[in-house]
Structure prediction request, 219 residues.
Amino acid sequence: MITNYDQIEEFFKEINQIIEKKINLYVIGGAVLLRRDLKGGTKDIDLVVDSKAEFMEFQKALEKLDFKPQIPGKEYEHMNLNQIFQKEDFRIDVFYKEVCGKFSLTEDMKQRAEIIQDLENLRVSHCSNEDILLFKTMTERDGDLDDCISIAVPGIDWKIILKELQNQIKQSKQDVWITWVGERLDLLEDKGLEIPIMNEFDSLRNKYFEDLEKKQSQN
Prediction:
């Protein structure tokens, strides 16, 4: 368990000293919440890279620092995780471009991200709280629903989440994400979280099921 963001900052500085090509890393998980005082610690650092070349360069750097690849567990089966690397208390979850199948790091997400470290060879950006919550509705990992509540309670822009979900569906042409996110939002409501976009979301979900029923009746 990592309980001090300074440890993560030092880790990125080490990576910067090893890599030879510029890498842009987008942090999407608990490490961001740790730095924003929304979480007391994190078991892993979730990162997205935007190109295959960056992924390979980052992987080489981790191997030079004696990180060992691990086999993803069942809780990652929906996540399209490219690799897990482990070294003592540090576990790095690396995604190449997409998280959860066709759920991608979009240009809007990049623009909302906050640059935390801009080093010679490495730029580290933290995704917005809204985008992190949306990513966390895609997982089955222990604690992710509690993280969603921690993110939402201080206040977030739910309209951004709704717009980004619609953007993702349009881009990937996979509106099945409505059902998956819907199940997680339902669970969050059961836990007492007020979600002001639920009426709009339910309309999207109902339309998905109506369209699905029409397709099935035509076959």
